[in-house]
Structures are given as C-alpha cells and as structure tokens.
Design a protein that fits this description.
By secondary structure, the chain is an all-alpha fold. Helices cover 70% and strands 2% of the residues.
C-alpha cells in the first residue's frame, strides 16, 4: 500500500505541479505564450548576454530599451547564463523560480497549512496563463506580496525597525525595476505619511515621507538614465492625449467582470454563450463557498492591508490610464489587484473552516477555472462545428424520409 504523503511535502508537490503545468502550457502553445512585449524582454536579455548592454535593435543600430525597466530581462539573462538555456525557456524558469521563492517564503511566514491554501491561488486559470507567458508580472506579484508583508510588519509594530524599513525600501526599488507601475507605492506611502501624522505617530510619518523621497529619487534617476541613453523617458510616447472618464469607467468595468469570467473573456460586443455560462457558474460556485464558510471571515490587519494595497493599485491604474493610452485592463494589468484580493480572502479563512467539503468545492472551482486557459475561439469554433454536424444529420434524415415516402 502507498504511504500517505507527509504534509511537509505538500508545498513542494504544489510547486512541482504548478511548474509542470506552466512548462506544458508554454510548450503546446504555438508561440510559447510570447507577445510583442515578450520580444522586448527576450531581445534585451539576449543582448545583455552578448555584451551589448540593455538594448534592442532598431533599424541598423542597437538602442537602449527604455520601454520596459531592466529588472525582468536582467533576471532572464542571469538564469540563462547559469542554466545554459535559451532566453525563452529561461524566462519560464524565472517565473517558476518566482513561484518557488514565494512558496518558501509563505512557509516561513504562515506555516504549512495556510501557505498551501494561499499557494493554490496560482492554480487558477488566469494565473496559470499569466505565469506561462514571458511577462514580468509573475516576478512583480511575488515582490509585491513580500513588500505588503513587510509593510504590515512595519505598520503594526510599536517601534520602527531599521531592518523592516530597509526591506520595504529595497523591495520598493525592485518593484519599480520590474515594472514602471511599481511607482504606485510612492503615492500610497505619502497617504500613510499623512495618516500617521493625523494619528500623532510622527516617527512613522517621517519614515513614510523619507522612503517616498528615496523611491522618487531612484525612479527619477532611472528616467534620466533612459533619457541619456535613448533620448526618451519611457522609450516611447506614453502620454499623448487623454481618455474620457466615462470610457475609462466602461473599460475597467469590463475588465473587472472578466476577472470572474470562466470560458475566456466576455467581449460585450457580441453574444458569447461560453463567457456568459462561465460567469454564471463561477458566481454560483462563489455562493456555495461563501455559504459553506457560513460568512465567518476574519478581517485581520494583514487581510485589510492586502485589500487597501489592491484597491489603491486599481485607483492608481484608473487615474494613470486617463492620461496614458495603454491597453484596456485585462487579467494581466489587473493581476496585482486580483492577486492581493485573493490572498486577503484566503488569509481570512480559518483552519477550522477548511472542511473536506469546502476543500472539494475549492478544487472544483480551480479545475473549472482552467477552462479560461483554452482559447475561446477554439471552443466557439468547435461549438459551431457540432451544430453544423447536427443540422447536417437532421437534414439527411429529412431527405431520407422524403425519399422513402415517395417510393
């Protein structure tokens, strides 16, 4: 008989299972889950390895890549150098390595049971697809989680700790080196500065102000570096007109609705039965989970901070998009919001509430979410093919019946 798996290996098995899924998805996808942004990352990483600095080829000359910060391509280059793999598969290893690092940290901070529960978030379809891509978001989310944790430790301690302050400061710089959107922590820190000033905690207020200044100085320094090497602050024109607030509200509403979609994105332009059924089914599953939990949810300071940072990021993204014409918010851009919301929700579930039935419901919820990884065009095409075949069979039967009746 097989021996029962030791609980201390659950997180390791979860990491291996997640990594296998990511590599499998990347392998079977025709372009291995790469986009135009991915090509920037990969080309820059390749040029770093070949001694051309952090550049991309434009025309006949190599130009500094100011479009994206250096963090993610540098990580790809480092992994590619030590593993001797090409930059494409090195990027997948970076994402899987980020997962492993996160799981290790979860185990240290939250223990085995809670860390496995939080780690299962990455098995949801949208996060599997996000991790399978050559994108900087997986690394960004792991760093963001660590930043929120150290912020929580700092804000809930009676005295300031130099080590905590240093961790928050360093992780903040890493966030901005991986994604420009990481600058959202600067206004958030300023909000905390005024909040502590209002509470009369002058030392914490001063600390929040100082780290905001350091982050601002670091980000400005990087922009100056971009300008000196490429002649542009962000590698391209990003602020070339405004978007109407009503249009922005509509875009974010669609994006947030799609976060609970199941069979691919809901287009809102044409009727899509798969997306509609997916949304309804997922809502039904959420209701079942909430009922099973009997609405017993522990909103600790850690949970609240996850929600605060998540909604502040959402507001920051909303305001930024009014002045910058980036893509409509989808699962990629909204991933920091969704990730922190889910981490907060899962953290609020007590161990006593994790009954066998609730675990089974969550497993079903995760497996059903994998339908989102399947391209909706493929499902729609197969659905129409089945309908066409059924119509052809019925037509043949009618023709045979008429022929038989005439004879």
């Amino acid at each position: 008989m097989f021996r029962k798996l030791n609980p201390k290996y659950y997180l390791l098995m979860l990491w291996l299972f997640h990594g296998i899924l990511i590599l499998f998805l990347a392998y079977i996808n025709p372009n291995h889950y790469t986009t135009i942004d991915s090509q920037y990352y990969l080309e820059s990483a390749r040029n770093i390895l070949e001694g051309r600095s952090y550049t991309i080829l434009e025309g006949s000359q190599y130009k500094w890549n100011g479009t994206f910060p250096i963090g993610y391509p540098a990580a790809i280059a480092i992994v590619s150098f030590f593993t001797k793999t090409n930059v494409l598969w090195a990027s997948k290893i970076v994402n899987i390595g980020a997962t492993g690092t996160w799981f290790f940290i979860l185990n240290l901070w939250f223990g085995k049971t809670k860390s496995v529960l939080i780690g299962c978030i990455l098995l949801l379809g949208p996060f599997l697809k996000l991790w399978a891509h050559t994108w900087s978001e997986p690394l960004f989310l792991v760093i963001l989680f660590c930043w929120v944790y150290h912020m929580h430790q700092l804000t809930n301690s009676s005295e300031l700790s130099i080590s905590r302050l240093s961790s928050v400061l360093a992780l903040g710089f890493l966030l901005m080196l991986v994604r420009y959107a990481g600058i959202f922590i600067i206004p958030l820190s300023l909000v905390y500065c005024f909040y502590y000033l209002w509470k009369g905690e002058n030392k914490k207020s001063l600390a929040a102000m100082l780290i905001s200044i350091f982050w601002s100085a670091g980000f400005i320094f990087y922009l100056v570096l971009n300008y000196q090497n490429s002649g542009e602050l962000f590698g391209d024109s990003r602020f070339d007109g405004n978007i109407r607030i009503t249009e922005n509200i509509a875009s974010f509403t669609k994006g947030l609705i799609n976060e609970i979609s199941l069979f691919g994105n809901f287009t809102f332009h044409s009727f899509n039965i798969f997306s509609l059924v997916g949304i309804c089914f997922r809502i039904f599953m959420i209701v079942l989970v909430v009922r099973k939990m009997r609405l017993k949810f522990t909103a600790t300071n850690w949970v609240k901070l996850n929600f605060i940072v998540a909604f502040f990021y959402l507001i920051f993204l909303f305001v930024l998009r009014i002045f910058s014409h980036f893509d409509e918010p989808g699962y990629r851009l909204l991933s920091p919001f969704t990730f922190l919301i889910l981490c907060g929700l899962v953290s609020g579930i007590s161990d006593k509430q994790m009954t066998v039935r609730l675990k089974n419901l969550l497993i079903v919820f995760i497996v059903i979410s994998w339908m989102g990884v399947i391209p909706k065009n493929c499902l729609t095409e197969k659905f129409h093919i089945l309908l066409h075949k059924r119509e052809s069979i019925l037509l043949n039967r009618v023709t045979l019946f008429k022929t038989f009746k005439k004879s």
